[in-house]
Design goal:
alpha/beta, Rossmann fold, three-stranded antiparallel β-sheet
Length: 475
C-alpha cells in the first residue's frame, strides 16, 4: 500500500503532523506550551515533555481540558487524508471501493453466568476473586473504585451478556481486546480485523466455540478464497456503510494496535468511524483502553501512598543516594512532590515512541469530547501487560521482568483482557455519572498495575528495572 492509499499523513513526516496536532491542541489553553511544541527541534527526544504539558494544562480547569481535546481532534481531522480528500470527507464524500455483507457465526456453548478472571494458573470466581481484588487494592495495583466496579459486575451477572447491545470490536484479534470474553458471556459482537487468513481463522474459531454471536464483514470484492475481514485504513467508507445496517445499539470499541506511524493512522480511521456513528446513531457508545504508559493526573490518596512507599523503601532506599549521585539525579526520583493533589504520574516510555503516544492520546481526547456531548463512554486505564507487541521489544521485556522490584505488577494478557471486559460491562450498565473533570473520569476504575502508587517516577526506575529483569529473562 503506498502512502496515498487510505488514511495517511499529509507528508512523509509523522513527527511534523504530531507537532501540528499537539500545538493546535494547546493553543487556546496554553499558548506558551503551543509555541514550545512548534519550536521543538528534537521531537523524538523531547516529545514526552509536551505530551505531559497537554495533561497539566487541563488540570483544575475543565474548559481547558475540553478545549485541548476538541482542538486536538479537530486539528488531526483537518490534517489527515483519505486518499486525495480530507479524512473528514472519507465516509460521506468518496466512492466505495469495497462493500461488505454480514457473515454470522453463532456459538453453541452455554454462556458463563458468573464472572471469572484467570490469574496465575487459577480461574478466580466468587470469594476468591473478591479476595484477589482486595489484595490488588492493598498492594496499590488497582484503585478501590476498580475493585468496587468489578464486584458490582459479580453481583449482577446478567450484565455480562450486554443484552440489547452489539459490541463492535475493532481489532478483534487483539490480545487486550474483549472479543473472547464477550463471546463466552453470550454477547453479540461485530468482529472487525484485517482480511488475513490466520487472523480470520482465530476469530472464527473463537466464535464457533463460544456462547455468543459474532458478525463478521464478508467482502464483496475479493481475489482470494477467504472473503472475511476488513482493512480499516483502506476500506473505511465500506466499513461505515456496513455498520450503518447492523441492528441494535452499537458500542464501538477501538482495540487496534500497529507499529509506528501506522498506529496513528489506524487510530484516526477509528476516530472518523466514531464521529460518523455517533452522529448518525446518537445512542452509540464508545469504548477504549487507556495505556498505563502515558501521563495521568492521579488522586491525592495515590500520591500519599506513593510518598509513603518512597519513605520506607528497603534496599533501594539505601542505594538511592549513590545511584542518584552517579546518574546526575536521573535515577530513582520520587514519583510526586509531597502533598500534590492531584499528582501527575508521567509514565510515558521513550521506547514506545511519539507515534504511540499520539495514537493513545487521540483516544483519550475522543473519550473526553464524547462524554461531554452526552455519549456513553468506557475508557479505563489497563495494567501493563505482557503482550506480543511488548515482549518483542527486548528493552521493554527486560523492564517488565524487573518491574516487580519497584512495586509494579505486570499482568498476563488473559487476566488483563477479562478484567477490562468486566469494566466495560460495568460502564455500559451501571449508569455512573461523569466526574467534574476529565482527569477524574480517567482516574476512576483505573487498573494501573502499581505505576501510580510506586515510590519512584517510572522513567527514573525503568533502566534499573531492565537491568534487574535481564537476569530474570535469562533464568
Amino acid at each position: 500500500m503506498n502512502a496515498n492509499t487510505g488514511v495517511s499523513f499529509p507528508s512523509e513526516s509523522s513527527s511534523s503532523a504530531a507537532r501540528t496536532v499537539l500545538s493546535d491542541a494547546l493553543r487556546k489553553a496554553d499558548p506558551v506550551g503551543a509555541r514550545a511544541v512548534e519550536n521543538e527541534t528534537s521531537w523524538r527526544r523531547n516529545y514526552l515533555t509536551h505530551f505531559r504539558r497537554a495533561v497539566e494544562a487541563g488540570i483544575g480547569e475543565p474548559p481547558a481540558a475540553h478545549s485541548i481535546a476538541a482542538d486536538g481532534l479537530r486539528s488531526a481531522h483537518d490534517l489527515m487524508r483519505f486518499g486525495d480528500v480530507p479524512l473528514r470527507d472519507a465516509i460521506g464524500g468518496t466512492a466505495l471501493t469495497q462493500a461488505f455483507h454480514t457473515r454470522t457465526i453463532r456459538g453453541t456453548a452455554e454462556p458463563e453466568t458468573e464472572l471469572s478472571i484467570p490469574y496465575r494458573g487459577d480461574r478466580l470466581t466468587g470469594t476468591a476473586l473478591r479476595d484477589q481484588l482486595d489484595v490488588w487494592v492493598a498492594d496499590g495495583v488497582i484503585t478501590p473504585s476498580c475493585s468496587e466496579a468489578v464486584q458490582t459486575v459479580q453481583d449482577n451477572p446478567d450484565w455480562l451478556r450486554l443484552e440489547g447491545d452489539t459490541v463492535v470490536v475493532l481489532g478483534a484479534g487483539a490480545e487486550m481486546g474483549p472479543y473472547r470474553a464477550l463471546l463466552r458471556w453470550g454477547a453479540e459482537v461485530v468482529a472487525v480485523d484485517l482480511p488475513r487468513p490466520d487472523v480470520q481463522a482465530r476469530i472464527r474459531d473463537h466464535a464457533e466455540d463460544s456462547a455468543g454471536t459474532a458478525h463478521v464483514p464478508a467482502r464483496i470484492v475479493t481475489n482470494g478464497d477467504d472473503d472475511s475481514g476488513a482493512d480499516l485504513l483502506t476500506e473505511l467508507p465500506g466499513i461505515a456503510h456496513w455498520l450503518d445496517g447492523i441492528q441494535g445499539r452499537l458500542v464501538l470499541g477501538n482495540y487496534c494496535y500497529a507499529d509506528g506511524a501506522t498506529h496513528v493512522r489506524v487510530s484516526m480511521a477509528a476516530d472518523a468511524l466514531a464521529e460518523h456513528l455517533t452522529r448518525q446513531r446518537p445512542d452509540t457508545a464508545l469504548a477504549f483502553l487507556a495505556t498505563p504508559t502515558d501521563t495521568f493526573a492521579v488522586p491525592a490518596e495515590d500520591v500519599l501512598r506513593s510518598n509513603e512507599a518512597y519513605a520506607r523503601r528497603g534496599a533501594t532506599r539505601l542505594l538511592r543516594t549513590p545511584l542518584r549521585a552517579v546518574s546526575g539525579g536521573r535515577l530513582l526520583q520520587r514519583n510526586y512532590p509531597p502533598g500534590a493533589d492531584p499528582g501527575l504520574c508521567d509514565a510515558i516510555v521513550p521506547q514506545q515512541g511519539p507515534n504511540y503516544a499520539l495514537a493513545k492520546r487521540l483516544q483519550r481526547w475522543r473519550a473526553t469530547t464524547a462524554r461531554q456531548a452526552g455519549t456513553t463512554v468506557s475508557l479505563n486505564v489497563a495494567p501493563a501487560t505482557r503482550t506480543r507487541s511488548v515482549v518483542k521489544n527486548k528493552a521493554l521485556a527486560a523492564a517488565y521482568a524487573g518491574a516487580h522490584r519497584f512495586g509494579v505488577e505486570i499482568f498476563d494478557p488473559a487476566t488483563s483482557n477479562v478484567l477490562m471486559a468486566a469494566l466495560l460491562a460495568y460502564d455500559l450498565r451501571s449508569g455512573a455519572a461523569p466526574q467534574h473533570e476529565p482527569w477524574q473520569d480517567e482516574a476512576v476504575n483505573a487498573a494501573h498495575g502499581g505505576l501510580w502508587t510506586a515510590a519512584y517516577d517510572p522513567r527514573s526506575a525503568l533502566g534499573l528495572a531492565a537491568v534487574l529483569g535481564i537476569g530474570a529473562l535469562r533464568g
